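Sample pair:
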Amino acid sequence: MKKIILTLAAVAGASFSGFSQGQVAFDNANANGFVVVDPAGDLSSSKASYTDAASFDVACYSITATTTAGLTGLDAYGYLNPLDLTSDGFTQDTVGGSLTPVLGSAGAFGPQTAIINGVVSANAVIAVVAWTGGYATYAAALASGTSDIGILVFVNAVGPAPQSPYTQDIATGLDALANSPASAANGGNDDMILSPVPEPGTMALAGLGSLSLFLLRRKK
C-alpha cells in the first residue's frame, strides 16, 4: 500500500513539474530598444557614437521571482553586472527548442519562444543577455575577457506553456525600463549597451591583491 501511495505521489509531482513553466515571446522587434555597442567601454552619457551591434548572440535567463528586489549588481535602469548573473540565481531558459543562443543582427533579435522553466505565476524576472565575439555561450564570452556584454533585467508577464499564440512579449518588460543616460546619448530608449567586462579570473586576482595589501598593512 505504501508503495502505491509513493508511486501516486511521484506521478503527481512529475505532472505538476511538467506544467510548472511559462513562456515569453523572446524578441525586441516590438520594443523601442536595440542592442548597441559602446566603443569607449565606459557607458559615458557624453558619447553619442553607440552603434547597433552588427553581430551578436543573445540568450534568455530567468529566476522564479516576481520582483527584482534583492538582486545584487542591478542598477536603477535594469542593467545587471555580468558577474552577478549566476550569483543571483539566474539560469538559462530553453529558446526555440534548444539552449542555442539566438543570432541577432542590426541591433534586433528574435522572434523566438523562450520556455521559462519553474515559473508557476503570471510574472517572472527575465534577464536578456547579449554578447559579441561569436562565443557559443555567455559563460565562454565572459571567460574570454574580450567580449562586449550587456544584461537587462525586468519583470515580465509570462504565458502558460505550451499554449499558442504567445501574447506575453518581452517588449512589455523592456518598455517598462527607465531610459538610462547612456541610452539617451544613443538617441534610443531602453537600449542594451554592450561593453567590455573583466574576465572573472582578473576580478579574482584583483580581490586577492587587495586582500594581500590589507593583511600587509595590518602586520605593519
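The helical segments are 2-19, 138-144, 171-176, 181-185, 200-219.
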